[in-house]
Give the backbone structure.
Amino acid sequence: NIEDHTSEPQYGIDRRYEVMYDLMSMVSTSLLGMTFECSRCHNHKFDPITQRDYYSLLSYFESSYNPRNWLRPQERWIPDVGPIKVEEYNAHNAAIDAQIAPLNEQIEALTKENTENENNSNDEKIAELRTQVHHLTSQRKSHGKIQALFDVGDAPITNVFRRGDCFKRGIPVKHDVPEVFHSYRSEKPDDSIPQNTLPEYTSGRRLELARWITSRQNPMTSRVVMNRLWLHHFGEAIVSTPENLGRSGARPTHPELLDWLAIEFQDSGWDLKHMHRLVLNSRAYKQSSKRPEVANKAESVDPDNALLWRQNLKRLESEIIRDAILTVSDQVNLQAYGPPAGITKPVSGLSMVEAGTSGRDHQRRSVYVFARRVYPLKFMEIFDSPIMAINCSRRSNSTTVLQSFAQLNSDFVINAAKASATQLITAYPQQNTPAIIKDAFTSILGRKPTAEESALCIQHITEQFTAFEPSVPGKGYHLAVADLCHMLLCMNEFLYVD
């Protein structure tokens, strides 16, 4: 199910098809690694995808996103209980409604009588009746709602649209995968595709497509997933255009490796954990991003490091940066499941995570932060969190002055530094500065300080204590240590994996 802008009834069939075109773009770029947009109006200029292929693939979704029998976003749900329970609840509520109806009629009549007589003689009786209505209403049973996608009515006939105009219908087409993939089909049934019988109430179109996407008859999805996995671990993908593995996309740097990974992925039963372990244990991944002894020769041959003679320097993703700050400051709330942590907008305009009823929702991991396309969490947005207009085929990775300002001035980072200082001083109540510095480096940067760094940090804490203590007696040492922690949180070494 996807968000769309058809909530209001005035939006016509053209707007409904725009939603489906977005869905096609999402499926093609994220699962097939191909750009289908051109084929909406004409045959693809580069890849062997025809306009007929586009609408044949679109037909898989028209049984659910039925343009002639459209459900608005707020109507795409199913009850969280079975049909027998729904009938039971409806019968129970109907009996209560039958009791409420005459009471409401009495309230209406008494209110009208008050108005005609221009007095409040019936107020006491009206209040009593309303109490009865409230009591009966509280006895109604209700079920929850689950957002879902399901077939709506009979599947419509899908037509090719001339020049992509939904008001200019051309030849009808049946649901099918692009013709270029037909050569991968075998007369023998694919054991990886379950052959169970479908229920009568569904066309089975989306299930058929899902089974094809995850079968050996589809050569693309396993390659797309492995290319993205490589991108995640190395910062650069084997095909640098992960949303487009077609002719108009970039050429793979290691085509044989991508093929091998794709086949291994399928042979493992599509086991992502197995593939992550395989890559993480490879010699290529275990390299450092620091220049090796052979750097001059390697750099002259491969300046872009396409052949991976060293590891790429990678900055942490925005969600990981936030989670890492919470973790090293011992603030992270590890509560799992449940509703997301909401976003609030203070006077400053910088969106923040709400504390919630528990008072600690703002410290939950980023995966539980409510994601709003038009109103993202500002701190993560600055560090390039994706804006999910349709889908994010490739994250941007910028380095801007705003990121430095956020690290220096954000209340989130400053409070984390103070929490880290509290944690360190509590562990060393005798103000053992060298030990505090050592633990600060270990917890934040994952290493011990050098002798030179330790000496400079001792000097820094001493100077900051001298500056803070006169204005805030008794708190100068805590603020000085917090300043050190803040400095470490702002270092590139904290943000990057080398």
